[in-house]
Specification:
single chain; mainly beta; Methanol Dehydrogenase, Chain A; 5-stranded antiparallel β-sheet; 4-stranded antiparallel β-sheet; 35% strand; disordered N terminus
Length: 543
């Protein structure tokens, strides 16, 4: 485990986020409404015909049309596997993302920022584009207009989807303290990529601002950019940092985008400036859901459920666009261990639901915001959710229910700078089903290991992966487990479903004999095709 804040806590969190009942967190800032705009959500609650985006579709519902259901899931077998090229012996392992599929080709990215094109039916590796630029994840790619979009730790890029040849590359970071570790968003010939306040060498070391860029998909030219936090960093840029996106935006039918922003730093604070006192105030737009105008990047409304975050409790997961009856709704979630539902048009809060283990610290940020330090806990103390807890990876939704994979993983604070963590395999978790209309919890299914694998819905099944390298399929109505499979290594990445095929990965080998591989499970497949698994074509070439 890294031993200081600049190297440790955020790379861990981002890595494992591919990569939760207590008091309600309500920000004193509430909703700031600038210009309400009409909004809608694509599709029927985001049911997608193909897995064409990092979260399945532009609404981020992680729900797809497929023949895989509770009756057929037992017929899944291994169709093929492909080795992951990035080194697996460094922090975060070699893989933490969700693949996308277009025209029968699986496109994905490892934690070396290397991009793969794999034939879905056979597992044949069509091309790779090697960057060897270490990322702490969750990273990944997006596809559109015949191009594959992604990023290294410093630059956004576009590749020819057929050959892997680079079309353009655009540096986005301002200095050595910033980085990129998200899968881009893509909509209407525009690519959306955000920087974050760190990279595998340093996180939250000061003077690092998360900036969201809207880039022309064909050329990489900047259309607009939006600073998710002020560049003066609340008066102390040499100490403070924050903001940025972990995951892609969501897009409504008009094309306006919804983004969820990461936390401020340092956290808890420093010995000289405890409890975030170097960054007074709510620290907008950290820990916020923000609706942006598609043409200008101007905020239309925002909600900040967690002002002045002190525990690294990001609101980091992609916003999910859906409907509650006739009302267009957007869902937000993150490591703070809550799911929120808001009106897409106005930002009005509809409901909020705590999930997983909380132990009484949910309002400590408000005490710190008000300078009431004597009311804050005395060290040492333990916090649930910890900095790797809550909902570390994206949620899913169907017509009636929200599904959240929750990590019950504590952080013990003995000083202002670095928490202590239990061993990863001592953490537990659960998958929680929440009523979409009311926010009431329908069922909870416990896991003996952390579920870092997000949630993915196909018919009456919801899938996730756990840290021990297991893929789980639960019945969406009852929460009962109906199928599971063992991956070739520990997993901290979600699954995708494309037609009769489920894609998953074991990306962080922990024990002798474990292998970092992407695995395709297919209905009625019976074994592993060794020839396709071992194929090693040139790093960039024609199909």
């Amino acid at each position: 485990m890294p031993s200081n804040q600049t190297r440790g806590t955020r790379p861990v969190a981002r890595l494992l986020c591919v990569v939760a009942a207590g008091a309600v967190i309500v920000g004193t800032m509430g909703a700031g409404v600038f210009t309400p705009a009409t909004a809608d959500t694509p599709g029927e609650n985001g049911l997608a015909p193909t897995w064409s985006a990092p979260n399945g579709n532009k609404a981020n519902t992680r729900r797809v049309r497929s023949p895989i259901d509770s009756r057929s899931v037992s017929r899944l077998g291994v169709a093929w596997s492909v080795p992951i090229k990035a080194p697996s012996d460094r922090w975060a392992g070699s893989y933490a993302t969700t693949p996308v599929v277009a025209d029968g080709v699986v496109y994905t990215q490892d934690l070396g920022s290397n991009v793969y094109a794999i034939e879905l039916r056979t597992g044949r590796l069509l091309w790779t584009k090697m960057y060897n630029s270490p990322s702490s994840g969750p990273n990944g790619v997006n596809v559109g207009d015949g191009r594959v979009y992604g990023a290294t730790v410093t630059s956004a890029f576009a590749l020819d989807a057929r050959t892997g040849a680079e079309i353009w590359s655009k540096p986005l970071v301002r200095n050595k303290n910033e980085g990129i570790d998200m899968a881009p968003g893509f909509n209407d010939h525009t690519v959306y990529v955000s920087t974050v306040p760190g990279n595998p060498d340093t996180f939250f070391s000061g003077d690092a601002v998360g900036v969201l860029w809207a880039l022309d998909a064909g050329t990489g030219r900047a259309k607009w950019k939006w600073d998710t936090v002020p560049t003066d960093l609340w008066g102390k840029p040499e100490i403070n940092s924050g903001g940025g996106l972990w995951h892609p935006p969501g897009f409504d039918a008009k094309g306006d985008l919804y983004v969820s922003i990461g936390n401020p730093g340092p956290f808890l604070g420093t010995e000289e400036y405890p409890w975030g006192s170097s960054r007074p105030g709510p620290n907008l737009y950290t820990n916020s859901l923000v609706k942006l105008d598609r043409t200008t990047g101007r905020p239309l409304w925002y909600q900040q459920p967690l002002p002045h975050d002190i525990y690294d409790w990001d609101l980091q997961n992609s916003p999910v666009l859906t409907r509650v009856g006739d009302r267009p709704t957007v869902l937000a979630s993150g490591k703070l261990g809550y799911v929120y539902a808001y009106d897409q048009r106005t930002g009005e809060l509809l409901w909020k639901t705590p999930v997983g283990k909380h132990n009484g610290h949910d309002d400590d940020n408000l005490l710190a915001l008000r300078g009431e330090y004597s009311k804050l806990p005395q060290m040492p103390f333990t916090v649930y959710p910890g900095v790797l807890g809550g909902i570390p990876a994206p949620i899913a939704v169907d017509d009636t229910t929200v599904y959240a994979a929750v990590n019950n993983y504590a952080a013990k604070w003995t000083n202002q700078v670095v928490p202590d963590f239990p061993p990863f395999d001592e953490a537990t978790g659960e998958l929680v089903a929440i009523d979409l209309a009311t926010g009431a919890i329908k069922w909870t299914h416990p896991f003996g290991q952390s579920p870092y694998g997000a949630a993915t819905v196909s018919n009456d099944l919801v899938f996730t992966t756990t840290f021990d390298g297991t893929v789980h399929a639960l019945n969406t109505r009852t929460g009962q487990e109906v199928w599971q499979a063992k991956l070739p290594a520990t997993s901290n990445s979600p699954v995708a479903v494309q037609g009769d095929t489920l894609l998953a990965a074991g990306g962080w080998p922990q024990l002798p004999g474990e292998k970092a591989e992407i695995v395709a499970y297919r209905l009625d497949a019976t074994g592993l095709s060794q020839s396709t698994a071992s194929t090693s074509p040139p790093t960039s070439g024609t199909r």
